[in-house]
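To: structure desk
From: M.T.
Subject: fold request, one chain
Message: Could you run this one when you get a chance? Sequence is below, nothing fancy, just the single chain.
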Amino acid sequence: MLSVNKEALKILDDILKDPEAFGAEIDVLPSGTTLIDTGLDAKGSYRLGLKITEIAMGEVGATSLIFANYGDLTLPTIVVATSYPSISLFGCQLAGWKIKVGDYVADASGPGRALSLKPKRVFEKIGYHDEFDSAVLLIETSKKPMDDVALEISKACNVDPKNLYLLLTSITSIAGFVQISGRIVETALFRLDYLGFDPTKALHGAGYAPIMPLHPDWGKAMGRCEDALTYGGYAHFFVDFEDDEKLKETVEKVPSSKSKTYGKTCYEIYKEVNFDFTKVDPDIFAPAAVVASNIRSGRTYMAGKINTRVLKQSIEMP
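Reply: Done. Structure tokens follow.
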């Protein structure tokens, strides 16, 4: 059986052997849990961002860095591909586990979710769970977790704390920006699932999204990261689907342009509701453009487009 945690450890081992080369910093808690700082205090790097994106996908996805043109704007861009979409994206990369231990709150993603089965309904839907003695998770946070957090996570994953590895990512770091843009295919599959599409019908997925310039303000940084996906993200799937007309109708509803808030930067959208994401129109959490090619019929359907105007507005470019 494919073990996403076992596969992810292969990449993580490279970082642990030479953290300075990746711009990472390593710390070990009293419980034995290993913390890998990728951007809280650590400098981070593009290379580290690419690697933790692959780790987040359980190493059953690949990444590369290119430059792409968005109108007359050229930005570094991450390309992501996977031939195990439901496992790598829903079973691993989806930030589906809300960590709450005392006053510590953070979002967790990565292959460790396939051990804890958080949330269970997702793993029931995709028909997958992992069995391994080590767990690897990405934690989006502004502060390092202590032992009480590590112990709760290791218990949920049913592993010894010494076999728990937590990669800490920051929304204001280069590695953090890279790995969020690297969620473009996951964002598209999440949107398809929201519209009733069975994620196991996706056989292969690939996509790209720009890596936006960093910003020291948390809110504006968050907005730019989301704009990369919402206005600059493109995803393509090969699917095995029985009804072309239904597939066409679904694809047409996917892009972020279907949202009533479309056209504003995500920072503007979030600020209007005081960053209460429950008040944000869910249709905006979508890629700019999506393509689905049906292997049963050979037909391809596309919807949406890249919005260079908002991308420029997001990075405060004249």
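Reply (cont.): The mean pLDDT is 97. Let me know if you need anything else for the meeting.
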